[in-house]
Inverse folding.
């Protein structure tokens, strides 16, 4: 049943929403024992919301008519704050932190009648591409198609549950350097990372403040467009939120893509891309052409060449300051009070942060140090500007750019263990460019190879999410 | 590196709170409930997920200060994160400014006209306050109160142009006057803190930094102590080391905090949670329009327009309310007389009552009424002073009061002569003493006459009459 049909039935009181939600909770619990998609299942909140909706439906409350998500279950990446529900960004250091407020996107979901089902698992604070860099004591989510493989990251739980759920459901993910599109690709679902600032970050637990974006992950392009319609918009509590007119994304669904121009990023099909991946992405491009789009090769040197370095300099610099506040003093985990404050902070952080979090704090702190700052952090900021300029030039000619989302098929956990940190970081090579430039991008599932999904990445100019939905919808239709 | 020539070299880094209603990055009130941790929200507590939103009023206040200190204004306001771990920091970084401060290359004149360079003026957030339950050194733990966390601060850094603790005090005084004129600082409750760099010629200007001196008066005390310490130590051939010291205000001494002066690395990066704010010429122009005339302009005006002494003008201008009252009074009363009465008598009576002008109800109307009577010699200075003392307590109609209490000066010489004769007759001993050459005995008789007239006569006139009568 499509979400559209589901909402209709809920409005017509054809579905007992409380009963439905209870069933969903049971299913989530069961899936979780095997797949670890949730850090927290917010049973109490979900049932309370379901009961409220039920009451309103019985009273034939008129405003319900326009609710865009009435009764639809929404899962939320752990790093997005939900009032009174433990929100840890997958880190033990934040265990017990129940925010006093809802993130902007959660306020919007609640206003539209969406039911918050729980907090999905992720790499600690978003630091990873396979959801294996989990916090101390957390569990690794598994690929819904093959349990021995990674579901990608860092929004791994979000993508996994989106594929696995049998019930109408959409997920809220977050991307700093590719954490929406990458797991979406590994889990065979759509993932849309919007323009930086398009969706308010208020209530998002920060990784890199100039990079973080909240966006939807869903089984269909329609689901993704629907949740995007709900969460977009200006929020006064986030200074970087864009005060621009809201879009109606759903109107781009099934809209003709005739005469649209797509640029195939030449450098993204070079060495290191698995042939199975390349083949399927080209199938996707063919589908776009069949629907009337024109595809042409374009060279984009900077993002592939310098994207990773730029991203890791800026991302770790910002992250190392963002993580400084976690010291066991005001919220989250605490330890026995002993020694000076320095000793206490050190003990809390040593014990409760994972290895990758520590690695990135060290990297970021190093890049910010006097004497290195100009060579690393400042240089990275300048390269970022150049990258944006290169993309902008390309968008004068093209409506969207295309590349594989990830260069490889979802790897086995046993293979991941053998990767060096640098090889790990290479997973994001296609994705760091649009993320650093704040450009909207979408993972579109394009096929299976060796029973594993392949995703195609579409990138559009700032605030052109509509074009991505238009193109993504065309590929979905062609399949 | 500057080439110093003076015996003492002092530079100040001053932190002062801006008197806005709400904090710099959230809408919590800056004042009100004193109960700890009541004026807080997720933002000023640094809760995960919270974000800062800039208070425009604080920027305007800081811009006013930059303009008053003749600074070049940056076209963009950029905030950076200054990272260090400390329990009073809600995020373990402070939102401050780094490369490009809001204002730079400014100046402020001392009383004697000497110009002190201002290197930079920037905007930042205040940390929380720490409470040591058993004193700074003995406490086993500290308590943190976040009510102050996120209050807007400006940091003002001077060139090392000050050459004595006295000049430093004068600088602070001039600065506080500016803050007061601009109405951007709460003179009663606002906090002013300073770090000072002090060096002397004898030690070849080895730079000693004194941290965290709170309060205007403490700054001079700490500097006097430190300069003397350095001088004494060099006399004893002790080497003055480059170091960081702290000021213990209770004991009145400075003590070593850290020896080796390594520049702390705060790992500054831009705070990308905040957007860069453009400071347009239009905005600056609007703020300029709102700017009041400042103390040093007023001194100039008082001297040139009202022809009063510079010394009087400076005292009047040092306090905004007094200066404004003087301007109004001087329209109706001879400015020289007005200046004398405001800067001497009014200030004396206020000081006696431990009050500031803004705290009492007396206004220019009362002063004009009173000084008109003085100017026309309707009452004596003595009576006027007494009326002023009463006015400070609670204002009333001066003219009616004088009439009711029959306080008009005794100008009728025959009446005055009558009082003098009585006094002479009643005090023969004093008259005799005076004649023997004891000059003070005359004052005694004059005093008796003044008492008879209830101060309504001028001592000078009484003096003359008595002398004439006893010759």
């Amino acid at each position: 049943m499509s979400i559209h049909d589901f909402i209709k039935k809920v409005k017509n009181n054809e579905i007992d929403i409380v009963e439905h939600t209870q069933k969903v909770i049971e299913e989530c619990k069961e899936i979780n024992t095997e797949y670890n998609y949730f850090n927290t299942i917010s049973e109490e909140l979900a049932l309370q919301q379901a009961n409220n909706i039920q009451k309103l439906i019985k009273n034939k409350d008129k405003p319900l008519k326009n609710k865009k998500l009435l009764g639809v279950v929404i899962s939320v990446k752990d790093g997005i704050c939900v009032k009174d529900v433990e929100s840890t960004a997958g880190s033990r250091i934040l265990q017990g932190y129940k925010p006093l407020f809802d993130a902007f996107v959660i306020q919007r979901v609640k206003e539209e009648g969406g039911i918050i089902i729980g907090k999905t698992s992720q790499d600690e604070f978003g630091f990873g591409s396979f959801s294996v860099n989990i916090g101390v004591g957390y569990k690794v989510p598994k690929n819904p198609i093959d349990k021995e493989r990674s579901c990608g990251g860092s929004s791994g739980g979000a993508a996994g549950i989106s594929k696995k759920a049998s019930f109408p459901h959409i997920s809220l993910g977050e991307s700093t350097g590719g954490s929406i599109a990458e797991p979406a690709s590994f889990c065979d679902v759509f993932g849309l990372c919007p323009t930086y600032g398009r969706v308010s970050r208020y209530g998002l637990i920060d990784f890199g403040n100039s990079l973080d974006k909240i966006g939807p992950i869903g089984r269909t392009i329609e689901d993704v467009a629907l949740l995007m319609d709900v969460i977009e918009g200006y929020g006064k509590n986030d200074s970087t939120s864009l005060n621009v007119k809201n879009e109606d994304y759903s109107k781009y669904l099934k809209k003709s893509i005739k005469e649209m121009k797509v640029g195939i990023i030449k450098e993204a099909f070079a060495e290191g891309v698995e042939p199975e991946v390349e083949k399927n992405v080209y199938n996707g491009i063919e589908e776009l052409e069949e629907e009337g789009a024109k595809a042409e090769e374009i060279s984009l040197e900077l993002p592939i060449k310098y994207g990773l370095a730029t991203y890791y300099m800026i991302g770790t610099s910002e992250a190392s300051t963002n993580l400084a506040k976690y010291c066991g003093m005001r919220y989250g985990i605490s330890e026995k009070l002993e020694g000076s404050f320095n000793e206490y902070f050190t003990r809390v952080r040593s014990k409760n942060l994972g290895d990758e979090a520590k690695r990135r704090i060290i990297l970021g702190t190093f890049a910010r140090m006097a004497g290195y700052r100009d060579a690393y952090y400042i240089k990275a900021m300048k390269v970022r500007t150049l990258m944006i300029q290169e993309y902008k030039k390309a968008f004068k000619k093209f409506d969207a750019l295309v590349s594989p989302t990830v260069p490889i098929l979802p790897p086995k956990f046993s293979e991941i263990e053998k990767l060096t940190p640098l090889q790990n970081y290479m997973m994001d090579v296609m994705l760091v460019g649009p993320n650093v430039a704040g450009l909207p991008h979408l993972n579109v599932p394009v096929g299976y190879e060796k029973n594993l999904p392949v995703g195609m990445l579409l990138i559009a100019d700032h605030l052109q999410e509509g074009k991505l939905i238009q193109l993504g919808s065309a590929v979905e239709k062609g399949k | 590196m500057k080439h110093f020539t003076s015996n003492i070299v002092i530079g100040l880094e001053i932190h002062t709170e801006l008197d806005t209603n709400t904090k710099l990055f959230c809408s919590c009130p800056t004042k009100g409930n004193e109960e700890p941790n009541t004026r807080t929200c997720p933002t000023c507590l640094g809760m995960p997920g919270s974000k800062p939103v800039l208070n425009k009023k604080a920027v305007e206040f800081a811009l006013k200060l930059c303009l008053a200190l003749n600074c070049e204004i940056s076209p963009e306001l950029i905030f950076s994160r200054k990272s260090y771990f400390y329990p009073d920091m809600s995020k373990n970084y402070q939102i401050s400014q780094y490369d490009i401060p809001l204002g730079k290359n400014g100046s402020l004149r001392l009383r004697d006209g000497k110009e002190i360079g201002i290197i930079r003026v920037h905007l930042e957030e205040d940390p929380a306050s720490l409470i040591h339950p058993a004193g700074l050194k003995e406490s086993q733990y500290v308590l943190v109160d976040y009510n102050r966390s996120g209050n807007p601060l400006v940091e003002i850094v001077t060139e090392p142009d000050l050459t004595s603790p006295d000049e430093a005090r004068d600088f602070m005084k001039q600065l506080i006057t500016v803050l007061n004129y601009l109405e951007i600082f709460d003179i009663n409750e606002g906090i002013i803190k300073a770090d000072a760099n002090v060096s002397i010629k004898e030690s070849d200007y080895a730079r000693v930094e004194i941290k965290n001196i709170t309060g205007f008066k403490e700054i001079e005390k700490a500097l006097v102590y430190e300069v003397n310490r350095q001088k004494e130590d060099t006399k004893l051939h002790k080497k003055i080391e480059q170091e960081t010291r702290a000021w213990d205000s209770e004991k009145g001494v400075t003590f070593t905090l850290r020896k080796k002066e390594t520049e702390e690395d705060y790992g500054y990066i831009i705070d990308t949670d905040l957007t860069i704010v453009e400071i347009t010429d239009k905005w600056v122009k609007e703020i300029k329009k709102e700017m009041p005339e400042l103390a040093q302009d007023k001194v100039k005006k008082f001297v040139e327009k009202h022809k009063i002494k510079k010394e009087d003008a400076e005292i009047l201008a040092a306090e905004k309310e007094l200066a404004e009252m003087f301007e109004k009074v001087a329209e109706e009363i001879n400015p020289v007389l007005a200046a004398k009465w405001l800067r001497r008598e009014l200030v004396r009576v206020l000081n006696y009552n431990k009050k500031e002008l803004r705290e009492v109800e007396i206004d220019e109307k009362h002063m004009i009424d009173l000084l008109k009577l003085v100017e026309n010699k309707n009452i004596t200075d003595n009576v006027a002073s007494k009326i002023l003392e009463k006015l400070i307590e609670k204002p009333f109609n001066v003219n009616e009061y004088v009439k009711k209490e029959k306080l008009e000066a005794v100008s009728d010489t025959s009446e005055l002569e009558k009082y003098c004769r009585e006094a002479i007759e009643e005090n023969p001993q004093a008259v005799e003493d005076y004649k023997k050459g004891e000059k003070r005995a005359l004052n005694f008789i004059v005093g008796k006459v003044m008492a008879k007239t209830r101060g309504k006569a001028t001592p000078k006139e009484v003096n003359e009459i008595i002398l004439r009568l006893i010759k």
Notes: The first helix of chain B runs from residue 56 to 68.
